[in-house]
Design a protein that fits this description.
Helix content is 44%, strand content 15%. It is globular, with a radius of gyration of 18 Å. Helix 6 packs across helix 7. It has a seven-stranded mixed sheet, with helices on both faces. By secondary structure, the chain is of the alpha/beta class.
Length: 249
């Protein structure tokens, strides 16, 4: 049954993304604002999350929404635990402020989905560019934060298996420090239902926990990222103790 439901959900997403992408491209041709295009993309992402609930039985529950610095002039850089594709759909669907992802440019080549995100105010980079890629993130990140968007990044860089921690890279912390934006850590237990790189998904509840904003003024990027990592990984153990059973602290 999980396989059949996963196939149905994939078919639904593959079909539904087409009209939404065409609408986004049409809005762009007509000169509509980037916010209008974002709202259209967010509608499809929310539809994908809702369809996962209806077709597969994946639900989510969020705690800590009151911690989000809504209205802050400094903006925010969201640093999110990355276990599956689910949180990339979920975050824009639940956040009260438009988000700008930092993502690898290869995603632009995906038909329809890549065309959509290429039409939005996002930051796509070539990881092979090294320092040039980071300078692009800082330059565009400053502009987007000034426009009222929040930048969202996965500090581990890739999807991490359930119960494990990846290497937390400091690029996101450096961006936050250089722009003066607060850092907001987010723990997500998506791999319980949507395992890393897996086609078959399972019913269940994905827990999302949003931590308190961390000021970045005067901080060093390595110790700031260590604080983020410590909070996220401790929160992951609290939310999903089964995944960490028998593992050290």
């Amino acid at each position: 049954m999980p396989l059949i439901r996963s196939v149905l959900h994939m078919l639904f997403m593959s079909i539904s993304v087409v009209p939404y992408t065409l609408a986004i491209l049409l809005l762009r041709v007509c000169g509509a604002s980037s916010l209008a295009r974002y709202r259209m993309a967010r509608a499809w992402l929310k539809l994908s999350v809702d369809s996962a609930r209806v077709i597969i039985g994946i639900r989510y529950q969020v705690q800590g929404m009151e911690n989000l610095p809504v209205g802050s002039a400094k903006g925010a850089v969201l640093l999110v635990k990355h276990q599956s594709t689910y949180e990339t759909f979920l975050m824009p669907a639940i956040m009260p402020v438009p988000l700008a992802y930092v993502f690898k440019k290869e995603l632009l080549q995906i038909p329809f989905f890549g065309w959509s995100i290429g039409s939005l105010d996002m930051i796509h980079i070539n990881r092979k560019d090294g320092s040039r890629a980071f300078h692009k993130v800082v330059e565009q990140g400053k502009r987007l934060l000034q426009q009222g968007l929040w930048v969202i990044m996965f500090p581990e860089g890739t999807r991490i298996p359930r119960g494990e921690a990846g290497e937390y890279k400091t690029g996101a912390a450096r961006l936050a420090i250089m722009t003066g934006a607060d850092v907001v850590p987010v723990a997500v237990t998506s791999a319980k239902c949507w395992p890393r790189k897996a086609f078959v998904k399972y019913p269940g509840v994905v827990d999302v926990s949003i931590g308190q904003p961390i000021p970045t003024t005067g901080r060093k990027h390595d110790e700031l990222m260590q604080q983020v990592q410590d909070w996220i990984e401790a929160e992951m153990r609290r939310l999903d103790p089964e995944a960490y059973a028998g593992k050290g602290s």
